[in-house]
Design brief:
alpha+beta
Length: about 280
């Protein structure tokens, strides 16, 4: 698979991924063939200028204002006027998780057209939250979501679930986490017991047309994760089978075998990614 990075329609870089001989990789490529092969929904967690961060923050405040001025019946009370912090991003994300929960359950009093507008605003808000979080956390990754015009989602099979892995490895591509909210690994890593207690934890349900590439090795302490789940009675009190990979794992697509940049500092600027088999 060859991916091309572009900035304003000019090629700035390329990378080639050797896909694994797995059901996960084959399913991902099958789904990608159903898209138009171009993604403008892209983000990364490094080399972001102060101007980029400020523009993202200003757009985030605009979205919060738009939601609060709409007919949506739950207002966002997070104060973005001062003392910007990671905690405020977490608090904002709670509103997105609540919106997703209502969307799945059909709990809304809005008209369909008004609700679609709020969903679109919420999805944009979610993307900005993660971009700003990555800047604070200084992560080294990039990702892209391909659509036609909607996201292609293929439900996980039992055999795909068995292909799950625990850790991100450097220069490997993974299926994106496409659920609204956090999985059990996410809530464990930030000790978000409140999301667990409110039963808002979400499993991976699909292989979708979103990829995630890690540019540094990550370490997921599975033993500590299990202990956290036991300590917080994730199964006994809240019914989560946290040993099932759908609640914590990742799905590997393949490895980058060739790329146009040598160091992260040389990573190209881009606002579009295209794909060819």
């Amino acid at each position: 698979m060859i991916f091309t990075l572009l900035k304003d329609n000019v090629t700035t870089g390329t990378f080639t991924v050797q896909a694994n001989d797995t059901e996960t990789a084959n399913t991902f490529m099958s789904a990608m063939k159903q898209t138009n092969g171009t993604s403008t929904t892209v983000s990364h967690g490094f080399n972001r200028s102060k101007v980029d961060v400020i523009n993202d923050f200003l757009r985030l405040t605009q979205i919060v204002t738009a939601i609060n001025n709409s007919s949506y019946d739950r207002k966002i009370e997070v104060d973005l006027s001062s003392n910007f912090s990671l905690q405020k991003l977490f608090d904002l994300h709670e509103h997105f998780e609540d919106l997703g929960h209502r969307h799945r359950s059909g709990d809304t009093t809005l008209s369909m057209s008004a609700y679609e507008e709020i969903i679109n605003l919420g999805c944009e808000m979610n993307g900005l939250i993660h971009k700003l979080e990555s800047g604070i956390n200084s992560g080294y990754f990039f990702q892209a979501l391909f659509q036609k015009p909607n996201i292609i989602r293929i439900p996980l099979t039992e055999s795909v679930i068995k292909e799950a892995v625990n850790d991100y490895k450097q220069d490997y591509m993974y299926v994106g986490y496409g659920e609204t909210g956090k999985n059990m690994a996410h809530v464990y890593q930030i000790n978000d017991v409140d999301v667990l207690r409110r039963k808002l934890v979400q499993p991976q349900r699909y292989i979708l047309t979103e990829f995630f590439v890690e540019l540094e090795n990550k370490s997921f302490d599975y033993g500590a994760y299990i202990q956290w789940c036991k300590d917080n009675k994730a199964q006994e009190e809240y019914g989560y089978d946290y040993t099932n990979p759908i609640w914590y794992a990742k799905w590997e697509i393949g490895k980058i075998v060739e790329r146009s940049w040598k160091r992260i500092d040389d990573f190209p600027e881009y606002n579009t990614i295209t794909w060819t088999e």
